[in-house]
Amino acid sequence: MWSEKNNQLYKKFIFKDFNEAWEFLTNVALLAKEHNHHPTLMNTYNIVEIYLSTHDKENSITEKDTLLASAIDKL
């Protein structure tokens, strides 16, 4: 479940290992490109953290963010 953290949508994902986490990150990057979005992605071994906000809307949460979050959840 996504939560609001510092005026951003946030979610932490935990994977089996680094390779699985990296594959997920690659797919998130492709989705972000499709959605014309620039998320903050953080990776430490098997943990991926994602922050979504719309930079050109004063770093606030917009429909653009919720749509990308929904698409990420479908991966």
Average pLDDT reading: 96
The SSE order reads: EEHEEH
Please report the number of helical segments. Answer: 2
Number of DSSP strands? 4
Provide the CATH topology.
Gyrase A, domain 2
Count of the domains? 1
Order of strands in the sheet with most strands: 1-2-4-3
Structural class: alpha+beta
Helix content: 25-40%
CATH architecture type: 2-Layer Sandwich
CATH level 1 name: Alpha Beta
- CA distance, first residue to last residue: 14 Å
- Poorly predicted ranges: none
CATH superfamily: Transcriptional coactivator/pterin dehydratase
- Quick one: biggest sheet? 4 strands, antiparallel
Question: Radius of gyration, Cα only, in angstroms?
Answer: 12 Å
Globular, elongated, flat, extended or rod-shaped: what is the shape? globular
Q: Classify the beta-strand content into a percent band.
A: 25-35%
